[in-house]
Amino acid sequence: MSEKQDQELGMCRDITRRDFLNGVALTTGSLLLPSHFLAAMTAGQDAKTPSDYYPPALTGLRGSHVGSFEVMHKLRDGAFWEEAGKPTDTGEAYDLVVVGGGISGLAAAHYFRKSAGSKAKVLVLENHDDFGGHAKRNEFRIGNRGMLGFGGTFSIESPAPYSAVAKGLIEELGIDVPSFPKYISADIYRSRGLKPSIFFDKETFGTDRLVLNPAPAWGGETRDHPDTTSEAWKTFLADAPLSDQAKHDFQRLHEEKKDYYPGLSSNEKKAKLARISYAKYLTDVIGVSPEIVKLYQAFPHPLFGVGIDAVPAQDAWGFKLPGFAGLNLDPTPGKGMNRDAIPNAEAEKYFFHFPDGNASIARLIVRSLIPEAIPGNSVTDVVTAKADYRRLDEASSPVRIRLNSTVVRVKHVGDVNNVHEVEIAYVKSGKLETVKAANCILACWHVVIPFICEDIPDKQKEALRSAQKVPLLYTNVALRNWTAFQKLGANSIYAPGCYHTGLNLDLPVSIGDYHCSQSPEDPVVVHMMKTPCKPGLPARQQHSKGRAELFNTKFESIERQIREQLARTLGPGGLDPARDIEGITVNRWPHGYAYEYNSLYDDFWFEGGEIPCEVARKPFGRLAIANSDADAYAYTDCAIDQAYRAVGEILKKPNA
Ligand SMILES: Cc1cc2nc3c(=O)[nH]c(=O)nc-3n(C[C@H](O)[C@H](O)[C@H](O)COP(=O)(O)OP(=O)(O)OC[C@H]3O[C@@H](n4cnc5c(N)ncnc54)[C@H](O)[C@@H]3O)c2cc1C
After folding, report:
1. Confidence (pTM)
2. Residue 30: pLDDT above 70?
């Protein structure tokens, strides 16, 4: 890309991200500071948290930001202990130390206190500069208006109904899920004729073109079959830059009711579908043009972080993707189906989205643990409440949350079967410190545990290691207005060939003093999603290569991709990225969703056998294991359920 093109895209414009190097606040002056001072800053908040310490307002590269992962990577590479020196014993002792301040870790602290009493001493150690884990809040200021975005966990939703335990916590926090319709302005986009659309890019489809999406299930919004006689359908077939053959195949795919596996029972057919990818089913069984595969390729990205090359056809059937109408399959879920692909009407109704996503849940739990840290007392006021990070880690409080603290070792002090103390070592601001606890809950990512708990049995370590997370980018772009969306008639855009394969105007939710963008002239946050997958490889390999890509891509390259994609997609509607972009926050999640089992690659999931997450989550001595990895299910209800189980295991121990 030439300098002139960069200028046209606004790469040099002084938006908020220019004040941040990879998500870390650096003023021009600070660039002149000595490197050790810089290192301390990037390692996180210092012993005394400054009054302006406020991570949600940071822009640039967030998610797993610079400063959050380096210590852990050194430990992984075997290079940590030789340089570490002797730890300093803080002298602190707790009833419970929780490793990981995501929703699972915070819920574990909550449940433990409920049973052990409000005087129980609890410490939560978290390696990021904010609490909440994937439930991350992004704030923007556009003119004099504050806007919110979700940097990760989007909403209360789950393919299966929330358990009584998870629902119980949501209710205890005061969230009335059925009241959600009163907060959403469902008509803001619809009344202006904005609809889901598809962007065909010239590299993949020969030309850049925005076309009405006739079957928004591609954007993951509905599981209904499209009406192939509708105007939307005709418009799509007229406008889509697909060959005649592909259009013909497309129509056939949706209308034909052919049994591609004659003579087989429903179960036998499902078994075949469980072992073939949807991409192969489309080309090798139904015989459609490869253009159709390109069109559907990115459909499962938001759920699985891979394309249809790595998603079983049986799961595609569950999502009501086309090609199965003539198979006469019994509607019950088949063996090896992913839980995401099993429709459940009750679960679909249980939905709530805060403007900062489930970060509001994390903030509500923190408020219940440390009331001084989050002012206010209602679910509606939490949305605009400004957290006081100085109050999170005070010696006078029974519950403390210590941020920027990477746990590097958790070990029993004595014989694992007959011991009442655990020592936890962590690095904060470059210093190695220890605390002691009667119990420890590991609510961090499972892949981390074998590195920090050497004593765990090998078989369990292997199971923990198999929980390879799914990498993702959740990008928020603050725009001056959304008139270009209005002109083009689009509110969400599926872009199967682009860097970010999904692009959505913010879900218009107003809660308490927070008001969503009401008119196209108002500022708005646009959400973009990318999964760095590598089609053709088995899912876990795609994730591991994608993770490396995310760690190795500079913010500047991602920013250029964002600007270029917005210019190409929305430029025809008048969007000028150099003029209209007011802020960018890229939430990089190299360790994103919990890995969910896949009947193409995980034989045990299809054929039966030991399930790795069940082996991985076994308690060990005074340690219990939580996190959404513990049930291989990438949802908040799982994070809560697993915290509840882990606390139950701890409480069964003598002298808990
Ligand atoms: C981009 C994205 C979008 C999502 N959207 C949704 C959604 O809409 N709805 C939904 O239900 N679920 C969603 N999820 C799934 C989400 O993972 C869960 O809902 C839930 O937030 C997971 O909580 P957790 O506490 O189990 O894990 P996490 O949130 O990952 O928390 C674990 C924490 O442990 C920390 N940690 C790791 N190692 C260490 C260490 N050595 N020392 C200290 N701390 C450590 C991590 O940094 C992390 O903060 C989404 C996930 C992602 C990545």
Report:
1. 0.94
2. no
